[in-house]
Design goal:
This protein is α/β, with parallel strands linked by helices and 205 residues long. Helices cover 43% and strands 20% of the residues.
């Protein structure tokens, strides 16, 4: 349910491939994503995307009720992605919901299709967001707008997310992967140590 493509250029493309279930994440999928993220230290660039019209509905509801919602796998995944020494892009082919926000927030850049929506209904479901999700979201869009999504449970459009600074670009579906590739073009051709130093310079202190 996770597809990994590694190109000669050093680009890794990780695709959530469970479109019949809106790419809802199971524990097996999360474990595989963590394993891929831990291996991707050799990648020159990484794109995270999904198949179908939804990027991810978050946790599989049955598994969430059985304990997946509070699994340490979510934090392990976002930490591993955030620690990668290459530029990472979340190419959001559709709506981003629940715990799936964590992996997108951990990426360096986010591109979304116009129909995408972002929401994180933790209050309604009776769970806390992952600690790093709230911190990364607040760092991007500020505390008030983070509360709008996390505490007030509002579903925001791709345009609103772009206006907030949660999404960096909006792309038509047919162009999404090319836009993501274009963002990585310089990183894939530059010396790895140069790209890593520039990324480090851009990190929050």
């Amino acid at each position: 349910m996770i597809k990994l493509t590694i190109e000669e250029s050093g680009l890794w493309i990780v695709t959530l491939n469970r479109p019949d279930k809106a790419n809802a994440l199971t524990s097996v999928m999360l474990e595989e994503l963590v394993e891929i993220a831990n291996r991707a230290t050799s990648a020159r660039g990484l794109i995270l995307t999904g198949t179908g019209k939804v990027f991810s509905a978050g946790a599989d509801l049955k598994e969430a009720a059985a304990g997946l919602a509070t699994s340490p796998l979510w934090e392990q995944l976002s930490a591993s992605l955030a620690a990668l020494p290459c530029l990472t892009v979340a190419a959001l082919n559709g709506t981003l919901a629940g715990g799936a926000n964590g992996m997108a927030l951990a990426c360096d850049l986010r591109v979304a299709v116009p129909s995408a929506k972002v929401f994180y209904p933790v209050m309604k479901l009776g769970y806390l967001p992952q600690p790093s999700d709230a911190k990364r979201m607040a760092a991007l869009i500020g505390p008030a707008r983070s509360k709008l999504i996390l505490a007030a449970g509002q579903k925001i459009s791709a345009q609103q997310a772009y206006d907030f600074g949660l999404i960096d670009q909006i792309s038509e579906p047919d162009d999404l992967m090319q836009v993501a590739r274009d963002l990585l073009a310089d990183s894939l051709t530059a010396k790895p140590e140069l790209a890593q130093r520039i990324l480090a310079m851009c990190q929050d202190n």
